Amino acid sequence: MTLSKLYDRHQAGQLLADRLMSAEPSEAGWVIALPRGGVPVGYEIAQRLRWPLDVWLVRKLGVPEQPELAMGAIAAPNMQILNRSLIERLGVTQTQIGAVVQAELQELQRRDRQYRAGRPLPAVAQRPVIVVDDGVATGATLKATITALRQFQPRSITVAVPVAAPESWRQICRQVDAAVCLMTPARMGAISQWYDHFEAVTDTAVIDFLTACRPPD
Fold first, then answer.
1. What local confidence, expressed as pLDDT, does residue 189 receive?
2. What angle do helix axes 9-21 and 38-49 make, rounded to 10 degrees?
3. What is the structure's pLDDT at 2?
4. Burial 120-139 (b: 16+ CB within 10 A, else e)
5. Is-contact 61 70, C-beta < 8 A?
């Protein structure tokens, strides 16, 4: 099926689940979603595979005065990546980088308290992991998440996203064991333009999705 647009994140997750089912590992693993937008996508995949769902907390580091442009990202528990060439080209100072990092760390910690409520990080060691987001533009947050996850030695990492910028997707594919993407438009633009419905995902919705797919204690 050739896609030109997605209805919403739930349809995106269902279509990705269809692709993933054909290559489902025999051993159950984890679906790891990037909050907030990746969570409804990951929920649909987790429900189909009957795998637990969790989030990996990650925050984009936006360029000062251009916050939508990523100059890097931070990810739990202590991962930071920076786009040095972009930082140098735009003349972003170390002081500015430090201020952005501190602000995003505070939001990351807030989300950890809200979404994970003191629970430990998902036990991904020697388990297959599927990392999910609702789209990839620069890929900064996804790259930081993959790098952070590698420290915990999962058996394999598969990335599944509905839509991605071609060059970012090529870079991500080189980092992982397998990758699934529904669309790689030459002119990416904003992720939202590839969905008919792209409403903001609330903290409450994230918690509800995680609760529905939480493994037994």
1. 87
2. 40
3. 63
4. ebbebeebbbbbbbbbbbbb
5. yes
For 20, the token pair is: 């993933």
pTM summary value:
0.91
CB atoms within 10 A of CB 2: 5
**Across all residues in the chain, what is the average pLDDT?**
92
pLDDT at 26: 63
pLDDT in tens, 71-125: 999 988 888 999 999 999 999 999 999 999 999 999 999 998 999 888 888 999 9
Q: Is the peptide bond before 77 cis (omega within 30 degrees of 0)?
A: yes
Cα 84 versus chain centre, distance: 22
Length of the chain: 217
